[in-house]
Amino acid sequence: MAVASDSPSVLGVSTSVVVTVLLGVASALAFLWRRIRKDESETEEDEPTGAQEELPADGIFTIESLGRFNGVTGPLCMGVCGKVVNVSSSENITVGQGYGKLWAGRDATYSLATLSLKMEDANTMDFTLDQFTPDQVQALAGWYKHFTHKYPIVGRLTEYENWDFGTIEEEAKSQTPFGLGKDKAADSDAAPAKASPAPEEGVMMRAGDKVLIQGVESRTELNGRIGTLLTFVAEKGRFAVKLEGEEDPILLKPDNLSKAAAS
Ligand SMILES: *[C@@H]1O[C@H](CO)[C@@H](O)[C@H](O)[C@H]1NC(C)=O
Ligand SMILES: *[C@@H]1O[C@H](CO)[C@@H](O)[C@H](O)[C@H]1NC(C)=O
Ligand SMILES: CC(=O)N[C@H]1CO[C@H](CO)[C@@H](O)[C@@H]1O
Fold first, then answer.
1. How far is the CA of 235 from the centre of ligand 1 (A)?
2. Would the CB of 92 count as within 6 Å of ligand 3?
3. Are residues 178 and 128 in the same domain?
4. Which residue's CA is minimally distant from atom 13 of ligand 3?
5. Are the CB atoms for 211 and 256 separated by under 8 Å?
6. Is the sign of the CA dihedral 130, 132, 133, 138 positive or negative?
């Protein structure tokens, strides 16, 4: 009895004071918690979603409207041979990094044919299919196959309306998704689905390829050197490149690499 009646007061402070203080603390915590939650949800809404662009119902894109399907203001789409594909599901093509930085919301046709990772080659349209070498036709056909098989085609680009990609489509039928000539013979009999073990965008340049380094501002001495590609470090959006005579590979942005002519 005595214990029970004593317990409500702590160190002589009355129960009501303790309760009041506790309530005050609790409501302050609840207020802070709501603020934090609010901040979180605000940033979530502001950043990736924002006002999401709807894909055009008629499937007709222009280079300009394609630009809004960049993975930020709309699904991440890109153009290849006049078709627009929704590559949002790709783990290798992400906003602001590597391939995503180059091709999100842009046309990659010329880049894929020439295996170019230069920013300025995306959305390039002042070319003709005739100018491509057989290797470039193969590369483009392989990539066309890759992108149109792996991802949903959501429309077409008006700028390519009068182009005839028939030769590319025809070539694509016998192509591995990578379109790199040297493996063609080995894979050409395989069914398209298994022609390539893992058709991943990151291997547009493959391990072992010789690459030319250019435009690096932080270490200009690297420019003009040829290295060997090791791997694409997707989370950094950079390629690991081994330079001759150097132990440790260096990481370089796709922008700063181009495929060196096969020797
Ligand atoms: C684009 O692709 C993503 C991932 O596959 C999918 O969730 C999304 O619904 C697609 N968007 C449209 C508009 O088709
Ligand atoms: C190489 O990367 C730098 C940034 O480090 C960039 O400013 C430059 O334009 C790139 N060079 C080329 C040739 O794209
Ligand atoms: C080359 C490259 O980075 N490929 C990656 C693409 O994404 C898949 C996961 O879907 C990785 O396994 C690959 O390594």
1. 22
2. yes
3. yes
4. 200
5. no
6. negative
CB neighbour list of residue 92: distance below 8 Å, 6 or more residues apart: 98, 99, 200, 201, 202, 232, 234
Query: Do 128 and 83 reside in the same domain of the chain?
Result: yes
Q: Distance between CA 158 and CA 63 in Å, rounded? A: 8
pTM of the model: 0.57
Please tell me whether residues 59 and 183 are part of one structural domain. yes
Is residue 3 situated within a structural domain?
no
Distance from Cα 215 to the centre of ligand 2, integer Å: 5
Cα(252) to centroid of ligand 2, in Å?
Answer: 10
Whether residues 60 and 185 share a domain: the answer is yes
Q: Is 43 inside any structural domain? A: no
Q: Is 55 in the pocket of ligand 1 (CB under 6 A)?
A: yes
Number of domains comprising the chain: 2
Closest ligand relative to 88 C-alpha: 1
Q: What's the pLDDT tens digit per position in 223-232?
A: 999 999 887 6
Digit-coded pLDDT (tens) for 229-261: 887 666 676 788 999 888 899 998 877 887 776
Low-confidence ranges of the chain (pLDDT < 70): 1-51, 175-207, 232-235, 237, 261-263
User: Ligand 3 center to residue 119 CA distance, Å?
Assistant: 22
Domain assignment present for residue 13? The answer is: no
Range of the domain at 149: 55-189
